[in-house]
Amino acid sequence: MENEHHDRPVVVGVDASAHALHAVRWAGAEAARRRTGLRLVAASGLVGDHLPGRAGRRCAVEEVLHEARAAVPAGVDAVEVVVPGEPGPALVAQSHRAAVVVIGDRGAGRLEAALAGSVAAPLVRAATCPVVIVRGSVTDGLPVVVGVDATPVSGVAAAFALRAAAARGVPLVAVHAEAEGSPVGARLQVLGRSHPQVPVRVVVTEGDPGERLLAESRGAQLVVVGSRGFGELGGLVHGSVSAVLVHGAACPVAVVGPGVTSGGWSDVAVAGDGTRAPATPGSRADGPPPG
């Protein structure tokens, strides 16, 4: 469960937008927390040297990388990478050797198409590490929020979110929909024992969990979701709710896709000791009411 790939770098896609520079700053801070390197990846859009305009485009890419490097926090070892073709496939390839892939929200260049167009879903599905869309504001000290259900990918997302909270020294808020006999609360209790210093608060909602995640994002520094849940959060990332979350959350959003298989519920032996995570006032914790 603790396979964090500490030796793998943080990868960030860059283009000529201010949003990409925001992503670079976030990615640099993440690399510093992980004590690993940072890869600044720019896609040239070219698939071969024979195409016209190569020299001009290469010059533009180098300028983009120069600006990106200037945004890297001091003390972070950054490497510049220029890849041919479009950013989506390039970032998928980079994910195989990365701890996390980071992109900006609403960029002015090809990353905008990668996020909002047909590349977005394939990137999340094919990436073998979490994908973070940097948007909104980042306020140190605020909790990490995770949307959970009983599906395997949600367990991986919960494990990632727990480690993120531990690295930041903040609480974890776990949001899931009410379901009869749901094991999520007990699983979170057991999962949390790997990082006992992290307070875990479970928020059970009877309404739309996506809307609750949006609300929680206003008081969070990171929201984490799984991309292929088929339980209470089923369809969250690939449906309309996910589009609202990715484009409407008040803080960065980490999407854990089906290609990310390290950790999660499969590594959790649920203890049947009846313990419960604290619930938000107005909600109830998992499990039947006492008495």
From TrEMBL:
Family indicated by similarity: Belongs to the universal stress protein A family.
Gene3D superfamilies: HUPs (3.40.50.620)
Residue ranges of every copy of the UspA domain listed in the record: 8-135, 192-256
Official protein name in the record: Universal stress protein
Region described as Disordered: 271-291
Pfam families, alphabetized: Usp
